[in-house]
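Inverse folding, one chain.
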């Protein structure tokens, strides 16, 4: 997907990135395909590094099928919350803002695995809350559960205040939210630590 993104740039972006449903570029399958698209090599690297770093242990506990289901659900959750927030933004627009805000919202896609990766980060924090992690920036040690809480609060803050442009913060929150719901459901059913087909 990443190589195809560079070989067929506009086609890949317009076809597989996630656009707002009222956009002429929107296709239903983009709800899933957006998580396999990335803006550039660094975007891909950091997402895949985080996926390997935190997903490795979770997949060993859950097994491949359950982990894949979780990954796809959190990626879908990221898309759903992102689109819901975009809908609320449009609904609250001033009439004077329509002429420049609507084309911007309709024409700007969301892409990347970040929402699903944040879901994986949340799973790591819930499954291994007391694992001590050594961060590089800032150079501190803290338990996984605190890392998850800090990231969650920061993403929510940046999403509400819109202090950083070009980042779909509510997609990150959506991945974490849907991950929390799914893990809570598995806990309720008593299947959280089962890695067979009974999900």
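Residues assigned per position:
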């Amino acid at each position: 997907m990443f190589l195809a993104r560079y070989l067929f740039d506009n086609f890949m972006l317009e076809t597989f990135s996630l656009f707002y449903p009222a956009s002429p570029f929107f296709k239903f399958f983009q709800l899933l395909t957006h998580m396999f698209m990335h803006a550039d090599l660094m975007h891909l690297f950091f997402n895949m590094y985080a996926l390997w770093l935190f997903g490795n242990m979770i997949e060993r506990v859950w097994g491949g099928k359950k982990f894949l289901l979780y990954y796809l659900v959190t990626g879908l959750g990221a898309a759903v919350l992102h689109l819901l927030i975009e809908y609320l933004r449009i609904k609250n627009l001033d009439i004077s803002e329509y002429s420049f805000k609507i084309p911007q919202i309709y024409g700007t896609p969301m892409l990347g695995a970040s929402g699903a990766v944040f879901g994986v980060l949340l799973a790591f924090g819930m499954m291994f809350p007391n694992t001590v992690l050594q961060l590089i920036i800032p150079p501190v040690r803290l338990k996984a559960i605190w890392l998850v809480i800090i990231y969650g609060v920061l993403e929510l803050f940046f999403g509400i205040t819109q202090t950083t442009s070009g980042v779909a913060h509510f997609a990150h929150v959506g991945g974490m939210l849907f991950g929390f719901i799914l893990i809570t459901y598995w806990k309720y059913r008593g299947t959280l630590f089962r890695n067979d087909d009974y999900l």
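The chain has one domain: 2-189. The domain at 2-189 is CATH 1.20.1540 (Rhomboid-like fold).
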